[in-house]
Specification:
It is an enzyme of class 2 (transferase). By secondary structure, this protein is of the alpha+beta class. The chain contains 13 helices and 12 strands. The strands form 3 sheets. It has a 5-stranded antiparallel sheet with strand order 2-1-5-4-3. Strands 7-9-10-12-11 form a 5-stranded mixed sheet, with helices on one face. It has a two-stranded antiparallel ribbon with strand order 6-8.
């Protein structure tokens, strides 16, 4: 183990260097000259080691220091140890920065590191994706020059970060910004995409507004007739009409509540176990007379069913999806329309299709048909008792069976509502594939 450099060691080295000069001076005389020569030799030796040290530090820069003797040996070794510690600390700091950046990249939020003046010195991938930043091109840029929104500029300049800032960007994303001190003179800026949350909140508000409106209309009718019956004596004709109207509105409310409960139950259902056998042909045989009764002879209804095509799934949810599609076709197409309902095996799976040759649906309405309470013709839907929930029920029921509803419409030619259950849900699918081929 090397000893550290001390004044005692330097004095002892000086004494050892002067001892030969002292002995020679005693033997031959000229003691001052011998002492001068010893000190001069010692200075030259130290100067040479200084040059070696300078060369190692500024030119050579290798990890291994030059070899040293006497007082220079602990000095070289100490510098070497200090260099090793610095390298180790830089390596640890580099690993820490890598871990921080890796963690920041894994966050579901955009992360930006800036100075208090707003100068960017790092951002993660989501900041580039959501906010349009570029890295490393934007290193050193001021964030106020890149995010040019008046609300954002005021938020940063006021430096009141107790509350987050929600900003609608040019790409229609809703971003929630939070700023917090990161270290001395630095800020950590976190931006979260809350677009979906705003959409869900808007859907929730619309849902309650629509439910309130749908229930208010029949309740208003009932209240009006009850007040009329309380204020005056109705003749038989008026009494019968009032009772019929109130019964219709009661049935309408009852249907709306049932559909709301069905939709809520389907939405809240966990991932269903698709092992229950569903006899869809039997379901359609029971549904056919109901559809014909509902039509009252106003439509030409045809069923095309594969009698052996059964599937695995949830009986209640599939029944809701299929019956809603059939009833919609009967309720929302005019008299004289031909309605074709098919349940057949295709190369993609088990396909259910309802087609009609009615007036059709304009293309701008097609993407929104499965929204709750959305109606193409509100007046006609209310006249036929529609609640605007049927296709929403179909959509959610099919999502639990890994299927989706496809809607196509060519006005005055053909409108089709189609879904296909995957082949793996068909009972005895392998046998059926062999028979088909």
């Amino acid at each position: 183990m090397l000893e550290r450099l001390s004044w005692k060691r330097l004095v002892s080295e000086l004494a050892l260097a002067c001892l030969p000069a002292l002995l020679l001076g005693l033997l031959f005389g000229y003691l001052p000259w011998f002492l001068f020569a010893s000190v001069l030799i010692m200075l030259v030796w130290h100067f040479r080691n200084l040059m070696r040290l300078s060369h190692w530090l500024w030119i050579d820069r290798t990890m291994t220091p030059p070899t040293g003797r006497a007082s220079w040996e602990p000095l070289f070794y100490g510098l070497y140890q200090m260099q090793m510690r610095n390298r180790r600390r830089r390596r640890e700091l580099g690993n820490l920065i890598k871990r921080f950046r890796s963690g920041a990249e894994s966050l579901p939020d955009a992360v930006i590191l800036t100075t208090e003046e707003g100068t960017i010195f790092w951002c993660n991938g989501l900041a580039q994706q959501h906010l349009g930043l570029r890295w490393p091109e934007d290193n050193g840029q001021n964030i106020l020059n890149l995010l040019r929104y008046p609300e954002f500029s005021r938020y940063i300049r006021q430096r009141d970060f107790n509350k987050p800032l929600t900003l609608v960007l040019n790409n229609q994303r809703h971003m929630e910004f939070r700023v917090m001190p990161y270290s001395e003179g630095q800020w950590l800026m976190v931006a979260r995409d809350v677009t979906q949350m705003h959409q869900l909140e808007g859907a929730r508000r619309n849902f309650f507004a629509n439910v309130s409106h749908e229930l208010r209309t029949p309740l208003t009718v009932l209240q009006g007739y009850l007040e009329m019956m309380n204020d005056e004596v109705l003749n038989e004709k008026s009494r019968v009409k009032a009772l019929q109207t109130m019964q219709e509105q009661t049935r309408r409310m009852d249907s709306l509540v049932k559909q709301l409960l069905t939709l809520s139950r389907i939405e809240a259902a966990p991932v269903i176990d698709l092992k229950e056998k569903v006899d869809v042909p039997m379901m359609l045989r029971m549904l056919q007379p109901e559809a014909e009764t509902l039509s009252g002879g106003r439509h030409e209804i045809h069923f095309h069913t594969d009698p052996h095509l059964k599937v695995f799934g949830d009986d209640e949810q599939l029944r809701s999806a299929i019956s809603n599609l059939v009833y919609n076709a009967v309720n929302h197409t005019p008299e004289g329309t031909r309605i074709d309902i098919s349940w057949l095996h295709t190369r993609h799976g088990a396909e259910f299709k309802v087609c009609d040759n009615g007036p059709g649906i304009s293309s701008e309405h097609l993407p929104r048909l499965t929204e709750r309470f959305y109606r193409v013709d509100k007046a006609r839907s209310r006249a036929t008792g529609g609640s605007g929930l049927g296709l929403a029920i179909v959509k959610h029921a099919l999502s639990h069976h890994n299927a989706r509803l496809d809607i196509t419409s060519e006005p005055d030619v053909e409108t089709c509502f189609t879904f296909t259950l995957p082949a793996r849900l068909i009972v005895n699918s392998e046998i059926r594939e062999n028979v088909t081929h």
